[in-house]
Amino acid sequence: MWRSSHVSGGNVHYVEALYEQYLADPESVPDEWRSYFDQLPRPEGSASHDVPLSPVRDQFYQLGRESRPGRVVAAADSGENKKQVKVLQLINAYRFRGHQKANIDPLGLRNPTPSPISICPFISFQRLTWTPSSKPVLSFLGIDKAPLRDIVDALERTYCRSIGCEIMHIVDTEEKRWLQRRFESVRSAPDFSADVRKHVLERLTAAEGLENYLASKYPGTKRFGLEGGESFVPMMDELIQRAGGYGTKEVVIGMAHRGRLNLLVNILGKNPADLIDEFDGKKVIERGSGDVKYHQGFSSNVMSPGGEVHLAMSFNPSHLEIVAPVVEGSVRARQDRRNDEEGSKVLPINVHGDAAFAGQGVVMETFQMSQTRAYKTGGTVHIVINNQVGFTTSHPLDARSTEYCTDIAKMVQAPIFHVNGDDPDAVLHATQVALDYRQQFKKDVVIDLVCYRRRGHNEADEPSGTQPMMYAKIKDHPSARSLYAKRLVEQGVLSEESAKAMVETYRDDLVAGNHVANALVQEPNASLFVDWAPYLGHEWSGDADTTFDMKRLQQLAARMCEVPDGVDVQRQVAKIYEDRRKMQAGGLALNWGFAETLAYATLLDQGHPIRITGQDVGRGTFSHRHAVVHNSERWHHLCSAAEHGRWSAAFHHS
Questions:
Q1: What is the number of alpha carbons within 13 Å of residue 170 lying toward its C-beta?
Q2: Hey, which residues does 346 pair with through a beta bridge?
Q3: Are 315 and 454 found together in one domain?
Q4: 554: nearest Cα among 520, 590, 525
Q5: Which of 161, 188, 207 is the last residue of a domain?
Q6: Looking at the domain assignment, is residue 331 inside a domain?
Q7: 3-class state of residue 193 by DSSP
Q8: Would 143 be classed as within a structural domain?
Q9: Same structural domain for residues 229 and 333?
Q10: 30: Cβ–Cβ under 8 A, 6 or more apart, which residues?
């Protein structure tokens, strides 16, 4: 009733009048009504807004009867128009629930729901027939007055194949329509060129080749391999290259263990010889903790269509998901350094595991910060490497209380694309839409890469002890690279010999210790990243001169106690500032809060920027800081005005 009460029968006269106004001048009605009227069916050949009232009147009548039976104002009854309305409702059913039928599980273990045709109430209760008919019923998805069966086929291909879209929870109509157009216009399967598909196969070959090489050279050694999720490598390659085309200068990546070594070698350009030395125990650790190889970070520059892009892989401990807010903080700092207020020049990518994404509270906390003034970064691309088992738990009823591991992202209305990891073309399309959405709307987006884990939690683990049925199926399941190579050969994109040559070339490069990240810049542009050399190699116990000129300190203390004219300070706060004036004059001993703010003042005076963020930092957890002075009479208006700006300075006088 809440969804349809505005078009109930009782409102029919009002809405008809509004619709007449819309027909005369579409811009004269509110945006939400204009969006609603734009979706109504139009007779064939009619002009943009030259539409009779019968379609809208019939829809109001139908919705009114369903939402408020017995209180409907009679309206003209047209069976054909009612059918058109039902078809529109069917289209929405696919948009809402098509993902539940989509073929997103490479192993086929997921039990999809029936087609939206059978679950749509307008089919069950209104008896809209689905016999193959050549009679045109509606223009949709670029089909001009198509038969119903063609519309259903287009919907099935768009929403029920290798990509399951969850976008209808988004409130913003513009965002929702943008996403619908991106998927519906190409039926979620764009026609990629032969060169693009060959490149995807080459990246899949690299992903599989590294794992096979390490498995043969170091059998049973822990590496948290990517086998089963190899499509992650071409996905990351596309994200970085496409972001570079937008003018992005830095990409900061956070991820846990799974696939980390593969990404370091095949995307960031870590030399395979260095990785082999780590496996052989030959690497010398001069400083630091000497952490395991699948925790370590890395940085490099790669070439993109828009020029060089600096990549930074954050170090990550075993604490799952804790790197996510670290990445956001690093990105925000880099954006501030570049004066990148929109978040166009620095892109955060956080890679998650399925069980951790659903189970770790820091994921929710990171999403909660994503649109706040102090922490937003212009949107994060979240990738879930969903191996459907976590550690040992595969049954969803034992793993979480939601349908998908990604449902937590709906709290910020992030679009979610579930994609079959064995369909690299679908992975590529979902990746492109995700990055374009982030760049267009500056909000978070989630790609759920549904794949599997060919080996155990690590290579020393035997998974069939807890997942016998799953691993019986995995044992005979061909890799994503094998399936894709076979498809390209069958479609005549390349020869079988060329596909095999990719495998041999990659292995030869590994054995020779050559770089295998094909976009790596060997002589990077140093201006894209910070030179940390001045901060390295120092003794950690070095002394520092912390003295400060007393006269200047007194001047700063006096300035800190000034309250701007016209600002009415709350009574207790006024007392704090009165005491600080006495402290500044020497009539009262300095307390902790005043000493702290004095320390900040000396740093600012010497040109060192200070940024303190958090809900309570202005006042201080113990009400000791009061570095922000609020006007007790006008604070509400000041807050409203401030919402339009980005507050990045540490202290403000309001």
A1: 22
A2: 250
A3: yes
A4: 590
A5: 161
A6: yes
A7: coil
A8: yes
A9: yes
A10: none
Q: How many CB atoms within 10 Å of residue 23? A: 17
Q: In what order do the strands lie in the sheet with 346-353?
A: 163-166, 416-420, 445-450, 381-386, 346-353, 250-254, 307-313, 298-304
CA–chain centroid gap for 287, Å, is: 35
Does residue 307 sit in the same domain as residue 443?
yes
534 inside domain: no
**CA–CA dist 9, 400 (Å, integer):** 42
Tell me the mean pLDDT per 10 residues along the chain, length 654. 52 68 74 74 52 54 49 47 78 92 93 68 48 58 72 92 97 95 94 97 97 91 92 98 97 94 95 88 63 78 96 88 95 94 96 94 96 94 95 88 96 98 98 98 98 91 91 95 97 96 95 92 91 81 87 94 89 93 94 94 93 87 88 58 37 34
Residue 12, pLDDT score: 60
348 forms bridges with which residues in the sheet? Answer: 252
Residue 111 belongs to domain spanning: 5-161
Q: Is residue 152 part of a domain?
A: yes
Last residue of a domain, one of 444, 463, 492: 492
* β strands within 374-504, DSSP E: 381-386, 416-420, 445-450
Question: Do 220 and 152 share a structural domain?
Answer: no
Report the alpha-carbon distance of residue 343 to residue 602 in Å, rounded.
31
- The DSSP H or E segment spanning 245 is helix 232-245
Please give the tally of structural domains in the chain. Answer: 3
**Residue 555: which CATH number?**
3.40.50.12470
